[in-house]
Write a structure and sequence with these properties.
Elements lengths: L1 H9 L4 H14 L15 H13 L5 E5 L7 H16 L3 E5 L3 H7 L3 E5 L2 E6 L1 H4 L7 H9 L4 H12 L1
Parallel strand pairs: 1-2
Antiparallel strand pairs: 3-4
Helix pairs in contact: 1-2
């Protein structure tokens, strides 16, 4: 609660509103029993939930999410993916950075693939699909010239034997 109060104040929110929203959000994320505990006692998933709350508590128009599913349990992943969809439907702009391409493929209206700091593809998933690539992972592999990951995996297996 103390951290969320701090974040809310950074955005000029009224203390009463911060407390009300923070409590509602912590309950919604299943953290009600820990709302007055120190964050350094939290698991990675719990900290991730608090960070997600801190990013939306002030109801921003633009949301930047960097690996938002990292450390979350399966049920929380489902909730966050649905949350992202609902926020997008409300008209919010969401920048979602992730290496989990199957998730990006499902939650994104527009996808930019970046390799070595350069944009190598930009468009909807449907626009990026080709006859030879029907998943975002395959598209990325093809565009970066790393289509045969089985060779890399085989080298790793050989190295550990």
């Amino acid at each position: 609660m103390e951290y969320l109060d701090f974040v809310g104040k950074l955005y000029g929110m009224d203390h009463t509103i911060i407390q009300q929203k923070a409590q509602q959000l912590l309950i919604a994320f299943g953290l009600e029993a820990s709302m007055n505990n120190r964050m350094d006692t939290f698991s990675k998933g719990m900290r991730q939930k608090v960070l997600l709350i801190s990013g939306i508590i002030h109801n921003p128009k633009i949301i930047v999410l960097d690996e938002p599913l990292s450390g979350l349990d399966a049920n929380a992943v489902i909730v966050v993916k649905e949350l992202i969809s609902l926020l997008a439907k409300e008209g919010k702009t969401i920048f979602y950075c992730s290496h989990m391409m199957d998730v990006v493929e499902k939650v994104s209206d527009r996808i930019m693939l970046i390799s070595e700091g350069n944009i190598i593809a930009d468009g909807t998933f449907e626009q990026l699909k080709t006859n030879q690539a029907d998943s975002l992972e395959q598209i990325f592999s093809k565009l970066t010239g790393k289509e045969d990951s089985s060779v890399d995996a085989s080298h790793i297996i050989s190295a550990i034997r």
